[in-house]
């Protein structure tokens, strides 16, 4: 049997609520449970929200042709000193060595990456008049980082050599091999230039040990 529409009446229903309804609070609670705990767990484990990061980079290191040398005598007595710094003043009771007979400086780039890996420094002095038992050497370098952070700073390498038996006065030599690494005491920042370590190690005034 076919049905025919003989009358129709539209019906409109409006529902009103406030922002702080139970449905809204329930929705906020659901979103909070879904988003907040995973974010806190990721932050606590440093797997998602990283606060600090570490990396290794070979710095660009250049010797500044600045050094301080101290030769110690037998029995811990007074020694002699020399420095390439023009304003260097040795400590009391320490005599200045005469100028070296020969200074040889060679920086070697072993892997051809534009960065020096080795430094050979040869200081040839007239033989001192004391029996040398220890050699202490300070070398000043310029260190630059550029891969992740822009850092330009000066650093000091300390080399110490001592012998149980002294080298007789008028003869003898000492050879020391050392390796250096840069380990900042704190984070150096992001990709922006860092000026925290830009202060020169040696001032322009008088320099003493």
From TrEMBL:
Where is it localised?
A: Cell projection, Cilium membrane
GO cellular component terms given for this protein: ciliary membrane; ciliary transition zone
Q: Which domain of life is it from?
A: Eukaryota
Where is the secretion signal located?
none
Give the main location: membrane
> Which residues span the membrane?
23-44
Topology within the bilayer: Multi-pass membrane protein
Write out the GO biological process terms: cilium assembly; regulation of protein localization
The UniProt keywords, alphabetically, are: Cell membrane, Cell projection, Cilium, Glycoprotein, Membrane, Transmembrane, Transmembrane helix
Family that this chain belongs to:
Belongs to the TMEM231 family.
Described by its record, this protein's role is as follows: Transmembrane component of the tectonic-like complex, a complex localized at the transition zone of primary cilia and acting as a barrier that prevents diffusion of transmembrane proteins between the cilia and plasma membranes. Required for ciliogenesis and sonic hedgehog/SHH signaling.
Name this polypeptide is given: Transmembrane protein 231
């Amino acid at each position: 049997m076919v049905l025919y529409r003989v009358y129709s009446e539209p019906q409109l229903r409006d529902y009103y609520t406030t922002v702080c309804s139970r449905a809204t609070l329930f929705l906020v609670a659901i979103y909070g449970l879904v988003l907040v705990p995973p974010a806190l767990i990721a932050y606590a484990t440093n797997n998602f929200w990283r606060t600090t990061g570490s990396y290794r980079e070979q710095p660009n290191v250049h010797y500044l042709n600045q050094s301080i040398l101290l030769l110690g005598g037998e029995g811990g007595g007074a020694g002699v000193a020399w420095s390439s710094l023009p304003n260097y003043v040795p400590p009391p009771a320490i005599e200045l060595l005469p100028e070296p007979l020969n200074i040889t400086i060679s920086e070697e780039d072993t892997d051809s990456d534009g960065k020096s890996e080795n430094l050979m420094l040869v200081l040839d002095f007239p033989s001192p008049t004391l029996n040398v038992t220890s050699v202490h050497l300070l070398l000043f370098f310029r260190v630059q980082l550029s891969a992740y952070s822009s850092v330009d700073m000066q650093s000091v390498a300390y080399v110490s050599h001592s012998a149980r038996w002294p080298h007789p006065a008028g003869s003898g030599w000492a050879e020391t091999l050392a390796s250096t690494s840069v380990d900042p005491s704190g984070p150096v920042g992001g990709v922006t230039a860092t000026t925290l370590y830009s202060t020169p190690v040696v001032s322009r005034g008088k320099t003493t040990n």
